[in-house]
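Title: Comparing notes on inverse folding

I've been comparing how different people in this forum approach sequence design from structure. To keep things fair, I'm posting one structure and asking everyone to reply with a full sequence. Here's the target:
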């Protein structure tokens, strides 16, 4: 797409990004990637471009991904119904095999390949590799849906230190070798916490936390832990936003400096968040 920026305007944009590049250089930024930004090919390409650019200016990006829509597609092709309870996929033995195949296989390796095509090095991991995500059964009625019991962060750190972007799919494993489907937001919070990440970016299909969920102009740009609890008690944070906020709170408690919830449907939203004054979405901080 042709744009009308002059060379001097391009240089000015880069200059304005310099303080942010300095701030994040050498720091770990975890990105939870899913939703529409993963389904739309053009958005997917732009997310990979953002991550590659950050890596090339010295940010240690860790990409943690879901893949719900892709799992649904494969289950439909196999004639298996997708069943959800309280937003969680009921996962019997056959379903967890499908989840493993799609997440650790097709989705993970596609993202690795896209990043490599952008000129950076990436390696795919899943929570079973090096027992990265240890888990146990969350609720018998959900089947092989996992509750995280421990994070062994070594494999992610090893990959980072070798100069690769870790691309992590959210599967867990228990002591008996059972595989579990792990909620992507929860896994991102635990992994980012274990890394002591400077920031966790939660990409969603909404603008962030809004005073009026139907009015994007009512976006709340920044909230503290206490304000998050107040917004829950007054009903401003409700429905599907509650578990997402709870994951953000968990990440802060586990050692992440700050967390942002933002709309992954906006082109180059990651760069807008990290490298501009305005940022994107809602920033959660400890105080």
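Reply #1:
Here's my take.
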């Amino acid at each position: 797409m042709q744009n009308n920026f002059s060379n001097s305007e391009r240089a000015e944009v880069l200059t304005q990004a310099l303080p942010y590049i300095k701030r994040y250089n050498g720091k770990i930024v975890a990105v939870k990637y899913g939703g529409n930004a993963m389904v739309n090919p053009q958005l997917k390409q732009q997310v990979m471009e953002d991550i590659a650019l950050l890596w090339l200016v010295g940010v240690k990006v860790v990409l943690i991904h879901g893949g719900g829509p892709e799992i649904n597609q494969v289950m439909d092709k196999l004639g298996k119904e997708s069943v959800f309870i309280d937003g969680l996929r009921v996962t019997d033995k056959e379903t967890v095999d499908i989840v493993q195949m799609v997440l650790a296989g097709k989705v993970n390796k596609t993202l690795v390949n896209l990043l490599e095509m952008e000129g950076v090095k990436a390696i795919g991991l899943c929570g079973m590799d090096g027992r990265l995500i240890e888990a146990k059964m969350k609720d018998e009625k959900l089947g092989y849906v996992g509750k995280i019991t421990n994070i062994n962060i070594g494999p992610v750190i090893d990959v980072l230190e070798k100069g690769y972007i870790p691309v992590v799919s959210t599967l867990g494993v228990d002591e008996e070798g059972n595989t579990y489907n792990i909620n992507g937001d929860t896994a991102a919070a635990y992994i980012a916490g274990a890394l002591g990440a400077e920031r966790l970016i939660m990409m969603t299909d909404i603008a962030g936390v809004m005073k009026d969920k139907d009015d994007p102009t009512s976006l709340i740009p920044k909230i503290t832990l206490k304000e998050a609890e107040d917004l829950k008690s007054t009903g401003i944070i409700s429905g599907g936003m509650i578990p997402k906020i709870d994951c953000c709170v968990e990440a802060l408690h586990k050692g992440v400096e700050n967390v942002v919830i933002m709309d992954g449907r906006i082109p180059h939203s990651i760069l807008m968040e990290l490298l501009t004054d305005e940022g994107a979405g809602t920033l959660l901080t400890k105080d």
